[in-house]
Structures are given as structure tokens and as C-alpha cells.
Amino acid sequence: MRRLTLLLLFLHFSTSPSYAFSPSLASPINQTIYNITKTLCWGCWAEAVQFLYAHNVVRATHWELPLAWDPTLESYARWWAAQRKGDCRLQHSFPDAGFQLGENIFWGSGSGWGPLDAVRNWAGEERDYSYAANACAPGRVCGHYTQMVWKDTRRVGCARVVCDGGDVFMTCNYYPPGNYIGERPY
């Protein structure tokens, strides 16, 4: 029994745990994983959770179904945010009409703005929306809010970028879109 114990101790300490069972980093599978993961946005999941959670809290106040996160909408939002990185201009991704997605955009001075700030800003437009009149208060904006709570919207994807000048641009895309003239959001 003593010999077996000594043999096991010898085997245990004679192999390095960091290399004993780990495959080579040069193997094709691990190289592929490395190449894929180095291009991922590691903070994106945390931001996605913040965007989604904040949207669904606002929707819950009107008993609307929660939105689901849509990676395709997120990809589109990331593409548009990348386009705005150079100038941080508060501009929608589509020209005038005919766009098949809803879209909210946000700009903040300085790099400290996060997803909760953008959603809070859009949700704050609720005070300027009259459900009875189904309209914004005169001279006020409320379309970001109504898109967030639109009864038929089911999916959202968003992105945040710190622009070259140090400010922040954020955008969220929604499907199906909302804000149809003459229809109420909920």
C-alpha cells in the first residue's frame, strides 16, 4: 500500500498540471477559437443585458410583452454605430421612409454614458406623450418612448460606441417597427 501511495505521489508531482491535460494552443481547433474570440466584443453581452433589461422594465409598466434580444438587429446596430464613430452625429441609419425597422438613437457628451442612460432618456419622453390624444405635447418629442413600448414590437438589438472625439453614440433597432400614424402604442 505504501508503494502505491508513493507511486501516485510521484506521478502527481512529476507532471505539470498546466500542461498535463491541456491541448496545444497551436492546434487548429484552438487557433480557430482564438481567432474568433479575439474579434468578439467582450463588453457587448453586459451592454446587451442592460439594454434589454431596461427596455423590458419600461414595457412592463404597460403590461406589454417583454422584448427578446435579436443578434441580427444587434449586428445592424453595431454596423451603424461604427459608421457614426468618426463624427458621432445624431443621425438615423436610413434616409426618409421605407425602412423596415424601428430605430432609436442617442448621443451623450463624454464617454461615461451607458445603455441605461440611453433607455432612461427615451423612456423619459413618456411625460410628453398623451395616450388620450395619442400625440406628443406641442413642441415635444415622444417617438423614442412610443417605439420602446409599441405593442407589436417583439425584438430589439442595440449597440454603443465611444466616438473618436470621446463622446458616445448608441442605437437600438426594433422589429416589427412601431410608430404608425393613427395607432396607439399599447
From TrEMBL:
A single Gene Ontology CC annotation of this entry is: extracellular region
Q: Which Gene3D superfamilies match?
A: CAP (3.40.33.10)
Sorted keywords for this record are: Pathogenesis-related protein, Plant defense, Signal
InterPro entries in UniProt: Allrgn_V5/Tpx1_CS (IPR018244), CAP_dom (IPR014044), CAP_sf (IPR035940), CRISP-related (IPR001283), V5_allergen-like (IPR002413)
Which residue numbers delimit the SCP domain?
A: 46-182
SMART domains in the cross-refs: SCP
Q: Where is the signal peptide?
A: 1-20
Matching Pfam families: CAP
What's the stated role of this polypeptide? Probably involved in the defense reaction of plants against pathogens.
- Spell out the protein name for this chain: SCP domain-containing protein
Show the taxonomic lineage.
Eukaryota, Viridiplantae, Streptophyta, Embryophyta, Tracheophyta
